[in-house]
Amino acid sequence: MIPVDLPVMLLGYMIYIFSEVFLWLFIAGLIALLIPRSRRYMLARRWRFGLLLMLLAAGSLPYIESTHRLWQDWRSHNPRLEHEEVLGDLVLPAGTQVHLRNLEPFNDLSGDPVPYGMQSLDQADFDRTPGHIMGMPVRRLKLAQGHGFATVETLSAHDLAGWNCEPGEVEFRFPFGAHFTFSEWKMHRCTLARGTELGGIVWPGQVEVFSSTTGWEARSEESPATLLGIELRSLNMILDRPYGDAHRWRGYANQPFDFGAIHYPADIQVSCDQGQMHFSLPPGVQALDQRSKTFIEGGQTVVQSLAGEVLGIRTNGSMGVYFPDELIVR
Prior knowledge:
This protein folds into 3 domains: 6-77, no CATH class; 85-192, no CATH class; 256-322, no CATH class. Helix content is 21%, strand content 38%. The protein contains 5 helices and 28 strands. The strands form 6 sheets. It has a 16-stranded antiparallel beta sheet that branches. The chain has a 4-stranded antiparallel beta sheet with strand order 21-22-25-26, with no helix packed on it. It is elongated.
């Protein structure tokens, strides 16, 4: 660990703060010279105010120098390319604004060399000439090399991994070291158009689809969708392939509804797995069994068939639709 000299660091910080104050006082003095009344007062005492402005100017130099260094460092890490650069499969046209993580070579804690210069690229903005990735015109590329994923902002719709993805952000995953090898990239996330038919329903809002080890998840937070006569928000659906059948789904009721002989309130979790419906009642909320006119207390899950037959009532948490953690936590 590199030792830290706290007193020296504190002294440098205080010099920086006072230098910034001196700069603002110097600017205030120059502005005062533009005001006739203040100018007359200062010119009547020119030696005193002249010396004060000189001292303020000298005292502000550390802040100006530090700010200049920071600006030069930012420009070095964010150059605009003067000519085309080719990094593996990635072609960066002249005029592209790039961000470079490292400018000088060094080794990580394991002693392995860390990419630097253009090889440490983690963002490219194609604000003058669109870039092209996998045949798609793109506006922006963000790379997380160490984490193995890239986000591309596309300018047109494209078919990716069997999905018809809308223009906008598309996320890819790739193995370590394959950040410039597009043949190793796998589509992980994109957005489908409004009105997409998926899992037997038409989704009124845009749908995000995510890959997983077991298939794909479709997710919509934008507009409620109606499934089996139930209006649902925050709908998640698991499919084994693009535009395939829905194996599991989960959402929240947007309004009260009847399913079979049971009347349910709004805002409860509704899920389906292996042909069974699960209606989870939070504590303090009741459902009404309209056959016996009795209430089903909160903290329980009602299990029904797709036809509405009541199959059982169980305590919340003892069963339910399984959604992999990697799909729920982004």
